[in-house]
Amino acid sequence: MKKNISTLLAWGGGSLLAVPALAQEAASEVPKAADSGLADLPVTLILGGTIAAFILLLLLIFLLINFIMALPFLFKFYGHPTRQNSAMARFIFLFRGDTTTFTGKAADILMEDHSYDGIHEFDNDLPPWWKALFYVTAVFAVIYLVNFHVMGGKLQTAEYEAEMQQAALLKPKNNNNANEKTDYKPLTEAPKLEAGHSSFTQNCAACHGQNGEGMVGPNLTDEFWLHGGDVNDIFKTIKYGVTSKGMVAWQSKLSDDQILEVSSYILSIHGSNPANAKAPQGEKYVAKK
User: Fold this and answer.
1) Whether 212 contacts 219, CB under 8 Å
2) Could you give the CA distance from residue 246 to residue 241 in angstroms, rounded to a whole number?
3) Cβ-proximal residues to 74 (8 Å cutoff; 6+ apart), any chain
4) Domain extent listing, the chain
5) Are 208 and 269 spatial neighbours (Cβ–Cβ below 8 Å)?
6) How remote is the C-alpha of 66 from its chain's centroid?
7) Which of 37, 95, 281, 284 could be cross-linked to 218 through a Cys-Cys bond (beta carbons 3.0 to 4.6 Å apart)?
């Protein structure tokens, strides 16, 4: 064992002598550290930390080897009757396989009138780990009782209600009710219709065609509508979508003003009869006077 320790110390000393050479080599390669996120640290700090960690590792190995070599003496010292019940003795004895620190020591005290058919019941003490766990749960129960039932701490239901109230305050005050009643009128101003045309071309033309003639989606220039041809019907169809028909909801991308502009533009191209128009779908809509 002493020979092994001498070899280890000699190896450690040689490694320490090699550190300056390694440091010089690392310093020459500092520009390469830019990609590793260490470029902002001083070179001396990086090298100093590396050397300190290496020395600490050697020290820990040295202490571990000395502790292992001292175990026979520690076993003998703490095996004395005056010391064998101390906490340090129980810790030391773990290294020779003595687990009584956790499992307890069975006294094998036979209980009277607790034998039947060759089976005997002993009055052994509970394992220390079990008793420690019981004490912890008892302390936790007292803290829980005082905190939640004496000091007014919030229980699960109260926490949930408080979080829901906070979420309601942070939630945008937008009306997302698909059954909301709206009373919009079609826009007629040229700038508004041009803005609606731009939004339609960018978001709707892929399914309804550049001129509203219909492709995957229905023709928007005839008198037939699947979900109503009033400006408010069109507004709701665009805003909330029709999932079953593949029509997505645009309320997360377009504002209500933009949706109204698109709806008004769609009504403005009614009867334009574009080329390659898709066959009518839905029911004929007659505007209310």
Assistant:
1) yes
2) 8
3) 92
4) 2-90, 190-284
5) no
6) 45
7) 281
CA distance 74 to 98: 14
CATH of range 190-284; options 3.10.290.10, 2.40.50.140, 1.10.760.10, 3.40.50.300: 1.10.760.10
Largest Cα separation within the chain, whole Å, is: 109
Q: In Å, how far are 126, 210, 269, 278 from 275, measured between CA atoms? A: 91, 11, 13, 9
DSSP code per residue over 276-289: TPPPP-SEE-----
DSSP count for the chain of H helices, then E strands: 10, 4
Distance CA 184, CA 274 (A): 27
Rg (CA), the chain: 41
CB 237 within 8 A of CB 262: no
- Cα(233)–Cα(218) distance, rounded to whole angstroms? 15
Per-residue pLDDT tens listing for the chain (289 residues): 444 444 544 455 444 444 444 444 444 444 444 444 455 567 888 888 899 999 999 999 999 998 888 888 888 888 787 887 777 877 787 777 776 666 666 566 666 676 677 787 777 777 777 888 999 999 999 999 999 888 888 888 888 888 888 877 765 555 566 677 788 889 999 999 999 999 999 999 889 989 989 888 898 988 889 888 889 999 999 988 888 888 888 988 899 899 999 999 998 998 888 888 889 888 887 776 5
Cα angle at 212 between 208 and 217, to 5 degrees?
A: 25
**Taking a C-beta distance cutoff of 8 angstroms, is the pair 218, 226 a contact?**
yes
Sign of the CA dihedral with 171 first, then 176, 180, and 184 last: positive
Name beta bridge partners: 16. none
Q: pTM (2 decimals)? A: 0.41
